[in-house]
């Protein structure tokens, strides 16, 4: 049986948002490919200590602020690795290749232009995704110009401080209304460095040229290939092991996992709780947004439990009809 190699890796972010990557030496495993810096965790060594040691040895920097980002197990033909990835948002020193390795600071979107080991694909996506996914509430009132202006103002306020994912969702809304609202909102969302997702079918998303589509669990389980979607981000709602496994098999970019806590919309419904969320997240090598009764104050807990971040409706949504 192949031993599991525990590796501490870092998504190192500097002011302005660029991310540091390094190229592996030709004589190394997966040589010549780009990677997120880090190295092997020694037996009995705390992960944070290993990360700090490796980044000092490789780059000459001292970690001052880091948090968990994602954990991924990957089985290569010749070895198995557990990538314990942390996001480093503050450090001291000038990063340089102390071992002679080339390094580059790259904009998150440009990471797609570099060749990484197969195990790094979810890390690349996690590095590109924000820590909050905002989901719209009812859009029933958005048939009047005043309500649409209120919706636009609500979106602008939500995206004013930092890039976020925004999901246009209303299962009760007519598809033509969703299409119209998507086309009206997408320019201002893109202008703020954010991404607008359509919660709906792949067919509808392709028809309107959506940047991303988020599938219901039912649509996820019926999908046979992610190649059916022509846009950039494909995600889905998950609630259990089977749905997470399907998302992994199809190579989705991220998922939501819910409900973590009780919600006003589903009083008395069973919830996962943080412990079960953590157990499921440990089995899933994809970025996961925790959803259900959560807000920005829950982010630290979500990160500790293995989440990319949190998804929310009530924490930000202001219905256009009440504006």
Task: Name some characteristics of this structure.
alpha/beta; 28% helix; globular; 4-stranded mixed β-sheet; 323 residues
Helix content: 25-40%
Stretches with pLDDT under 50, minimum 5 residues: none
Number of helices: 9
- Provide the gyration radius in Å: 20 Å
Largest sheet: 8 strands, parallel, barrel
The total strand number stands at: 15
Placed side by side, the strands forming the largest sheet appear as 8-9-10-11-12-13-14-15
What is the strand content?
25-35%
Global outline: globular
- Please trace the helix and strand order, writing H or E for each element: EEEEHEEEHEHEHEHEHEHEHEHE
What is the residue-mean pLDDT, rounded to a whole number? 94
Structural write-up:
There is one protein chain. By secondary structure, this protein is an alpha/beta fold. The protein has helices at residues 47-59, 121-128, 145-158, 175-191, 202-208, 217-222, 241-250, 273-282, 299-304; strands spanning 4-12, 19-23, 34-35, 38-40, 62-75, 80-92, 103-106, 132-135, 165-168, 195-199, 212-215, 233-238, 254-257, 288-291, 309-312. The protein contains nine helices and 15 strands. The chain is 28% helix and 26% strand. Helix 3 packs across helix 4. The strands form three sheets. Strands 8-9-10-11-12-13-14-15 form an eight-stranded parallel barrel. Strands 4-1-6-5 form a four-stranded mixed beta sheet, with helices on both faces.
